[in-house]
């Protein structure tokens, strides 16, 4: 751990948060997908084949009213690799966006908040 000088002149510890791959979610949300994806089976098959190259057992949930697809992988590594390779790529004329579900971000914020509140509580 490194020490840094605080604004008031005292020294404080800098805390590094170590995120393991196993801490990440194993799902992605596809957004900005073509509207035909929800009705044309050949387009669905083509879409799904993009993700099966990262995990042959990947599962899909189509949310037509939200124009989104939830893509669930067996592990977080496959999800991360798929996002790195396919985010903002063209699929049937639209630039597809891939995101990890928002729940993870909210959980990490809450976990950090609890971590720092416990640190402050123990210091006082």
Q: How would you describe this structure to a colleague?
A:
Belongs to the RCAN family. Inhibits calcineurin-dependent transcriptional responses by binding to the catalytic domain of calcineurin A. Could play a role during central nervous system development. It is a single chain. By secondary structure, this protein is α+β, with helices and mostly antiparallel strands. It has a domain at 24-105: Alpha-Beta Plaits, CATH 3.30.70.330. The protein is 36% helix and 24% strand. It contains three helices and seven strands; from the N terminus they run βββαββαββα. The chain has helices at 41-52, 76-86, 102-123; strands spanning 3-5, 11-13, 27-31, 59-63, 68-72, 89-91, 94-99. The strands form two sheets. A five-stranded antiparallel beta sheet has the order 4-5-3-7-6. The protein has a two-stranded antiparallel sheet with strand order 1-2. Strand 1 and strand 2 form a beta hairpin. The longest helix has 22 residues, at 102-123. Residues 1-8 and 118-124 have low confidence and may be disordered.
Helix and strand topology:
Elements: E1 3-5, E2 11-13, E3 27-31, H1 41-52, E4 59-63, E5 68-72, H2 76-86, E6 89-91, E7 94-99, H3 102-123
Antiparallel strand pairs: 1-2, 3-5, 3-7, 4-5, 6-7
CATH top level assignment of the domain at 24-105 = Alpha Beta
CATH topology of the domain at 24-105: Alpha-Beta Plaits
- Report the sheet-strand fraction: 15-25%
Strand order of the largest sheet: 4-5-3-7-6
Indicate the overall shape.
globular
Going by CATH, the architecture of the domain at 24-105 would be: 2-Layer Sandwich
In CATH terms, the superfamily of the domain at 24-105 is: RRM (RNA recognition motif) domain
- Overall mean pLDDT stands at 78
Radius of gyration: 20 Å
Low-confidence stretches: 1-8, 118-124
């Amino acid at each position: 751990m490194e020490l840094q000088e605080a604004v008031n002149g005292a020294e404080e510890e800098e805390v590094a948060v170590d995120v393991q791959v196993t801490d990440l979610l194993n799902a992605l949300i596809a957004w900005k997908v073509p509207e035909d994806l929800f009705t044309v089976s050949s387009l669905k098959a083509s879409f799904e084949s993009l993700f099966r190259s990262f995990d042959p057992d990947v599962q899909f949930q189509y949310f037509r009213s939200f124009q989104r697809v939830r893509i669930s992988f067996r592990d977080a590594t496959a999800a991360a690799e798929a996002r790195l390779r396919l985010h903002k790529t063209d699929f049937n004329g639209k630039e597809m966006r891939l995101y990890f579900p928002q729940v993870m971000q909210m959980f990490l914020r809450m976990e950090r908040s609890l971590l720092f509140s416990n640190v402050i509580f123990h210091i006082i």
